[in-house]
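Form 7-S
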Amino acid sequence: EPAAEPGNGSLVLAARYRIFGSEELSALSAGVADLAGSATLSFNPADAQSRGLADGVSASVGDTAFTVALDSSIPQGQLGYSAGYPGTFGLIPGTTIEPTRGGGARD
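Output:
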């Protein structure tokens, strides 16, 4: 089945796997957990700007807040997320979503 097409300001979710952190047992090792950092939402700079988002601010998907990362390698219309991190387990690649600004202590 083809990926969903973005519309009405929504973005298509794209899982981004990290060397440290995406594997389900990574968080159980203190050394690896330190290298993993926290989950991010990766925006194409144009998509972030159109939403009033900047690198390092907070954006939410549902009830979970993530730090915004700008990445020009993300195609416009897609939203990358840190796969395998807490708060990302319910996110399904290829579905559309509209992230919101703020939502948590990272604002």
